Amino acid sequence: MQPGNALNYDFSVAKLFMFSTLIFGIVGMGIGTLIAFQMAYPDLNYLAGEYATFSRLRPLHTNGVVYGFMLSGIWATWYYVGQRVLKVSMSESKFLMFIGKLHFWLYILIIALAVITLFAGITTSKEYAELEWPIDILVVICWVLWGVSIFGLIGIRREKTLYVSIWYYIATFLGVAMLYLFNNMAVPTYFVTGLGDWWHSVSMYAGSNDALVQWWWGHNAVAFVFTVAIVAQIYYFLPKESGQPIFSYKLSVFAFWGLMFVYLWAGGHHLIYSAVPDWMQTMGSIFSIVLILPSWGSAINILLTMKGEWGQLRESPLIKFMILASTFYMFSTLEGPILSIKSVNAIAHFTDWIPGHVHDGTLGWVGFMTMAALYHMTPRVFKREIYSKSLMEAQFWIQTTGIVLYFASMWIAGITQGMMWRATDEFGNLAYTFIDTVTVLEPYYWIRAIGGLLYLVGFFMFCYNIMKSLGARKIESEPASASPMGN
């Protein structure tokens, strides 16, 4: 990849999404930390009546982190990376600039509507797809605007070769578009029956069919938001920050097509021991095991990019963030397939091991990579030094400690739950009541909450560092590799 410094890139839309990444990260992670403490100390559910209960706040947490923090980070990096690897500035097209800004402000409107409706209890009750049909229509329009931006920039590019990161951004756009449309097909009940609220709807699918379509979407929201779009980022930012070329372009292509084919069919592992046909459950398990290959193909390719340059880990906090992010990606994409094995799933299903698995991937892989990307972008977008290297170091270790406390406590809690639920006495009766499991898990819930709090503290440090950087010493030319640091 060439530096591309000759072009005058326009990062105005990227800046908007960078700021929304910070804001939605604070909100989403703040709510997540609160509900973690609610699990340890249930009286916190009564802080503000029904609106502070776990059931109201949990959808706000997941939507705030996934569609607020993560998507903002993905779009911030797209409007930065897209211009650079395609060697074209958005300012060259007034139409694309208009589309980019419309994309942002429509997105903000959708997030505002999501907060209001979810707080009010207006929800479809479908995981990662809680928004009702009027907001779904706005989501589709917003997503199409992003697609216009992607293919519009590609259409006027100067660089004819599409770097692999662009492949992953395109896959994110196409994958989510297809899955979201199919899963969110619904019938507005008021216009059919004349009864109820105008925004209420029911799914076009019923019973186990609804569950299958939901987890075809639900698991692939993880695939195309948590995974594919973040791989797009690390394939760009790690080589740029380290000065090392990607270890193997062929391996990146192999991993791409492997992910595209295999990931789509792994969602059935969410429905093991359910009413769906057994062969579908088995297929979900098999595809989940096969998924290790393309996932580790990407992760190993990323790690081998640092071959011969591991000394940079001592000097650059950004390299630390990205390498540990890739390590958590390897870890999480091994853990997931293990959990999909039926004999393991019999113990793990519905236990706290599952949120432990989700969060070691989300906090370690997505969170670390998103923050690393914004750290890399800040000096180049705002022409300012990063305020503090020592603050970055402290943030890294505080958040790493938080992640380890989180997933370790949830592993122990989950396995404890699973074993206690299955335990029987000599007469074949259950050995423990449900409340017995709740009582024994309380210490682990406190550890989880403290781990989440540490991660949130680290995120506040990150936001402070970024905002202070906006007033730091101005730089005339952007750094070639590692970002310039202050103290």
Automatic annotation (TrEMBL):
InterPro entries named in the record: Cyt_c_oxase-like_su1_dom, Cyt_c_oxase-like_su1_sf, Cyt_C_Oxase_1, Cyt_c_Oxase_su1_BS, Cyt_c_oxidase_cbb3_su1
Membrane topology term: Multi-pass membrane protein
Cofactor list: heme b; Cu(2+)
UniProt KW Transport keyword: yes
Signal peptide interval: none
Cited PROSITE patterns: COX1, COX1_CUB
Pathway(s): Energy metabolism; oxidative phosphorylation
Catalysed reactions listed for this entry: 4 Fe(II)-[cytochrome c] + O2 + 8 H(+)(in) = 4 Fe(III)-[cytochrome c] + 2 H2O + 4 H(+)(out)
Record keyword Repressor present: no
Keyword annotations of the record: Cell membrane, Copper, Electron transport, Heme, Iron, Membrane, Metal-binding, Respiratory chain, Translocase, Transmembrane, Transmembrane helix, Transport
Main location: membrane
Transmembrane segments: 16-40, 60-81, 102-123, 135-154, 166-182, 215-238, 247-266, 286-306, 318-341, 361-382, 403-424, 444-467
Enzyme Commission number(s): 7.1.1.9
Gene3D superfamilies on file: Cytochrome c oxidase-like, subunit I domain (1.20.210.10)
Pfam families tied to this protein: COX1
Cytochrome oxidase subunit I profile domain location: 13-487
Highest taxon in the source lineage: Bacteria
Location in the cell: Cell membrane
Family of the protein in this entry: Belongs to the heme-copper respiratory oxidase family.
NCBIfam families: ccoN (TIGR00780)
Name the record gives this protein: cytochrome-c oxidase
Organism: Campylobacter magnus
Origin organism lineage: Bacteria, Pseudomonadati, Campylobacterota, Epsilonproteobacteria, Campylobacterales
Gene giving rise to this polypeptide: ccoN
